[in-house]
Amino acid sequence: MRRYGKNPDEDDIRVRPNRKGNRPRTTIRPKHEDALEGFVLTVDRGRLTCLVENRTVMAMKARELGRKGVVVGDRVGIVGDLTGDKDTLARIVRVHERSSVLRRTADDDDPFERVVVANADQLAIVTALADPEPRPRLIDRCLVAAYDAGLEPLLVLTKSDLASADELLETYSTLGVKYVVTNRDELKSGEAADRVRESLTDRITAFVGHSGVGKTTLVNALVPQDRRRATGHVNAVTGRGRHTTTSALALPLPDETGWVIDTPGIRSFGLHHVDPSRVILAFPDLVPGTEGCPRACSHDEEECALDAWVAEGHAEPARLYSLRRLLETRERREGD
After folding, report:
1. Pairing relation of β-strands 47-52 and 55-61?
2. Is the pTM of this model over 0.85?
3. Please, are residues 140 and 173 in contact by the beta-carbon 8 Å criterion?
């Protein structure tokens, strides 16, 4: 039986009210065509500091982005109050496609990936030659993460006045990694910053390293004085540094010739997310030899075709050894 007769559009039709008293949801979302592009400088407890047309703007992630993360280095679309005035807050409504993503996990058994930075094109791995002692396994892991993300690695060795860099550089000579060696006198005089800066021009470079190696001190020497961060010291008992950098921060080089991203000191670099097929792309001289490899070859097994290919003289054996040493870092603990 028809309840309202033949004319359901009559005024006597009762409409059930919205119990919450708000407007019903809609699947139609605004396009935000007026959004300006911003560059995320840092993230702190849900608030994102962004650079928008040479202004620093505080923003928050719009609800419509859902669980999509926004990290330092992201290029985003921003709407709302973009004056940058005190107590104003804009909204990030769009995250542009990333050219690269540097990831890490807490350890090799943790499937949860943490995005360190986005859109970087170089990874500066900072390590001290002494005080604290260098950790080659951690360097290996950072190199694997860089190759996996498609970043060019740069090895920055500090405190060469306390120990020689020769042995460590010999370990990585077959990888062809660019490097800069500095000491504390050069850091004070500015010579170290000048030499490192030559490798940073026109690039976005993420700086990583464990606490106490002088990473933030070096970053401070690279950027204008009003952008510098607090630094710490190495504990004489434990030999470890104290975490003074608690969040990633993007800083411009003088005259806007590039960007450096200072990241918090790390004590582990999990590689659960790494795909070996991407790591080998950093060894272009070995890639042709993988054509005879079985499907999903780890390049470190008996059936791997690289052994015979290298034995035939197509590439240096040291290069294959270096590749496998890096791939094995997932199975080795950093302290081993």
Report:
1. antiparallel
2. no
3. no
Residue recorded with tokens 């030499």: 195
* pLDDT tens column, 75-127: 999 999 999 999 999 999 999 999 999 998 877 777 788 899 999 999 999 99
The secondary structure of 235-295 as a DSSP string is -TTT--B-----S-EEEEPGGG--EEEE----S--B-TT--HHHHGGG-TTTGGGGGGSPT
Q: How do residues 261-315 score in pLDDT, each as one tens digit?
A: 999 888 778 888 888 778 888 899 999 999 999 988 888 888 999 999 999 999 9
Q: Strand 101-104 relative to strand 122-128: parallel, antiparallel, unpaired? A: unpaired
Instruction: Write the CB contacts of 321 (distance below 8 Å, at least 6 apart in sequence).
Output: 174
Which 3 state secondary structure label does DSSP give 256?
helix
Contact 303, 294 (CB under 8 A): yes
Nearest Cα to Cα of residue 39 among 122, 121, 149, 118: 118
In the block, tokens 């021009």 appear at: 201
- Phi-psi sector, 278: left (phi>0), alpha (psi -120 to 50), beta: alpha
C-alpha to C-alpha distance for 154 and 157, rounded to whole angstroms: 10
